[in-house]
Design a protein that fits this description.
mainly alpha, elongated
Length: 241
């Protein structure tokens, strides 16, 4: 029961994580609409000069969001412990991806924070930090793709009569992985659907991540409730005996 209680506590931090993510996303003036990679250095420098405070605070919020993602991802890893696999290798792979993916986001926020830290510096340097932030943020999807695929494979191999996650969750993770792949090529172009402000690299990518968080939160909650009910039934049966 101690493990279940700990999982439940972490699970109920999800609303706070969601609030932080939404607040940071809407607070950063460069997200809606996304900044253009074609903007000249002077325009980018003026952006950070005009929105210094909002950029700083939104990046600090995103930093906390990155940290808050780790316990949530570990909930999924802990659920994988109950899957019927001969070895824990898929769970270890998931741990590696779950640890690296938030760091990618964290690195991007630091670059944006540096761009706003000294907004009166040379426009070319501000442009450089802005490029570093956007390219890191957009292209850093391989860990997210691998994470979804490892989880999908683990679910496919979980052949229990009552699996930890339903088979449709695996299908969903494969679709999310496919939706994230194009963003990895955002560093190749300044315009079009693959650019960091393009349809695939920005909108599809970020919507896919948001939907993944919502859907996995729902299935995690159901899994936790199912385990809690099973534990209570076992305790009742033991007490009756």
């Amino acid at each position: 029961m101690r493990r279940t209680t700990g999982e439940t506590i972490i699970f109920w931090t999800l609303p706070a994580v969601a609030v932080i993510w939404v607040a940071a996303f809407f607070l950063f003036p460069g997200f809606l609409p996304p900044m253009s990679p074609r903007a000249p250095a002077a325009e980018v420098a003026d952006f950070y000069l005009d929105h210094t405070a909002r950029v700083r605070y939104s990046m600090i919020l995103l930093n906390w969001f990155c940290v808050a993602l780790v316990p949530i991802l570990m909930l999924i890893v802990e659920r994988m412990r109950d899957m019927t696999h001969r070895t824990p290798v898929l769970r270890y792979c998931m741990i590696g991806c779950a640890g690296a993916a938030p760091i990618t986001f964290l690195t991007a926020t630091v670059f944006w924070l540096l761009a706003a830290f000294r907004p009166d510096r040379s426009p070319d340097l501000t442009l450089l930090f802005n490029d570093l932030g956007w390219v890191t943020f957009t292209c850093g999807v391989p860990f997210l793709v691998a994470q979804s695929l490892f989880l999908a494979l683990a679910i496919y191999l979980d052949e229990q009569e009552e699996p930890v996650f339903r088979r449709w969750v695996a299908h969903f993770n494969v679709l999310v992985a496919a939706a994230l792949v194009p963003a990895g090529f955002a560093g190749l172009t300044l315009s079009g659907v693959l650019a960091w402000d393009g349809f695939l690299s920005f909108w599809v990518r970020n919507v896919a991540i948001a939907i993944w968080i919502v859907v996995m939160s729902v299935v995690l909650g159901r899994s936790l409730r199912r385990d809690s009910a099973a534990a209570e039934a076992a305790e009742a049966a033991e007490a009756a005996a």
